[in-house]
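Hi team,

Filling in the usual template for the complex we talked about on Friday. All components are listed, including any nucleic acid strands or ligand strings, so the model treats them as one assembly.

SUBMITTER: L.P.
PURPOSE: interface mapping
COMPONENTS: two
RESIDUES: 749
SEQUENCES:
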Amino acid sequence: MADLTKKHEPFVRVAKRTQVSTKKSVLLQISAFVLAIIAGGLFILLLGENPLEAYKHIIEGAFVGSVRNPLSSVQATVVRFIPLLIASLALVPAFKMKFWNIGAEGQIIMGGVFSTYFALFHSDWPHAILLIVMILAGAVGGAFWALIPTIFKIKFNTNETLFTLMLNYIALYIVRYLEAGPWQRTKGYASIGSIDDNARLPEVFGVHIGWIIALVLMVLMFFYISKTKQGYEISVVGESQPTARYAGMSVGKIVLRTMIISGAIAGLAGALQVAGIDHTLSGGIAGGVGFTAIVVAWLGKLNPFYIAGISFLFSILAKGSSTMQTQLGLSASVADVVQGIILFCVIAFEFFINYKLIFKKKEG
Amino acid sequence: MKALRKILAIVMALALVFSLAACSGNSNDDETTTAAPVGTTPIAKDAIKVGVLHITSIKDTSGYTFAHHQGIVAMKNALGLRDDQVIEKDEIPDSDAPAVKAALDELVNAGCNIIFGTSFNYMDPMDEYAKKYPDVIFSHGTGYKSNDVNFNNYFGRIYQARYLSGIAAGMKAKEINNPNLGYVAAMDVTNSEVTGGINAFALGVQSVYPEAVVKVSVTGSWADEKAEATASKALVDAGCGVLAQHCDSSVPQTTAADNKIFGCGYNSDMTAQAPTAHICAPIWHWDVYYTTAVKEVIDGKWTPTNYFGGLNEGFIDVSPINEAVAAKGTKEAVEAAKAKIMSGELVVFAKGMTKADGTVVDHDLTDAEITGEINYYIKGVELLK
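RESULT (copied from the run log):
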């Protein structure tokens, strides 16, 4: 028998690392980051630009403000940070439960749609009430959008990954429909137009107050996941549904509840985008944040504080690479490619943190 | 139920934070300045900075953004500005409000004195930013909003050139003895800019080929090459012999070439893209406006007035007639009509024009009507079914 297995042993095989020392894990993560920077730099070099200069532009673009407003770049970075952090937090309970919610993008959009309704048709309400209603409506919209695939999952055991993914596109086309149809502002132009000043969020330190909400959510989510009974139930369901059932938990109920929370938080991000920065509803409301959030949540190991850090790094990269692209006069897609390369390297290295390659030992 | 209570608790906590912040939030928007109106203080030529927002790539080789970019480059050369004095943000979809605002932020913070936005839906963000940054000039093409401080609007009488291209198209249609012409339209009949353009084109066609019919296929987007290809193909299948267009790319012209029919492009001379099909295109000389506007800012003579130039200002024109394709005598006919329009002898949207529903327009259209109220096709224009 032993002989047989040896014969069929492939040249390389992949094995899960049983235990990774923290030191080794950190070391691997640092080398992933360095490698990512080098790979991004190679691409920039291929375009005939100096990578060091490019990275300088990225950092400057994310932090160094203008004479007019020394905080301008930091503020713009934070504006990108808010929806990314909130959307990533939204995925934490779902992923913890191993419910693959790939639909944060659509849930953000539907949150935006629901809150825009109040901004457009009830802009005469008192400021604070209108804003609170808009934010709640956003949460309801996101929860509603998350509920659809969840109910199908519970009732018919449909594949939630595909279902949530497809709903993203439906949400986007609902916006397109509203733009060109019932909510069209000017005939002949597909646009909803600006919402009333009354429906816009106030700013603190030059950024809409969404950043405070995001940070509060981060703390709340940490406690919810690690300190509450519900958070524990989520982990149990995620680890093993039979165990959860055996322990007397109502799995369906827990899944439903968790996805409502997940969708509501993503929807909240949409409402904050509408009221805080976009001041309209457009197809760009989520702008891929719902997808980036998947990566962020994963890299952050579903820990809200790690996630916040990683969200911030991504925001720096997003804001900075846009500036870099303009400064160097490169094509607009270069910024996306550089981001993509860096992301790819980081994720690829994630693999080596969790798995190891075992090469076939030489005979004898 | 317990879950619900917990969610409610989270929501309440949020609401509390939110209302606290709302109370203390409005502290940083009180910039009261008593400076001279923006644009009235001269700026040294080597200190001025110009920002531009484009909808597609400045590396395009034809079409809308290409034409604007050419205009910006010509302005830069004419005024002798350095490369780093002109910042062009391209590929900013105008249906993506956050992307537009992020780009505007970048331009404002890069120190731009004047920012041009070339696509319609940049209008609201530019309006908002004009209020936020009263010392920066915002100049928006194709829209209708402006203010009397630092936000103006620029557009042109492109319908004059469309009429002229209609003459060229009509003569070709007559030559090949096919009364069906096609028109790829970005927006539907409710859009005055597009519909006015179609009508002007049809009037030009009918002036040389009265029984001709212009069939319209709508894409629903200013820049969507796939939709433009579908619409072009549908018009070809409907038997059209000449394709005109109001959309950003040269796809209708290359489709015409592929199907061995003819066409009139838009925005830039598309003869290079479709040498066997393209006759001539209504084109913009955006540099005429860009150079004027930036020069005014340098000289401190800028005023928040809207710009609506035409053939007379050299702001619009038809591209050179492609003699290899055009019907005999096209150049002479177009030149003659152009002279008449420039002298005022020929009015494009004149009294007596018959709408598709049979009613007759009883006055020459005013500029306000031309820019905002042409929401009907004229007789001889029909939507492709």
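MY TAKE: The radius of gyration of chain A is 23 Å. DSSP finds 14 helices and four strands in chain A.

Thanks, L.
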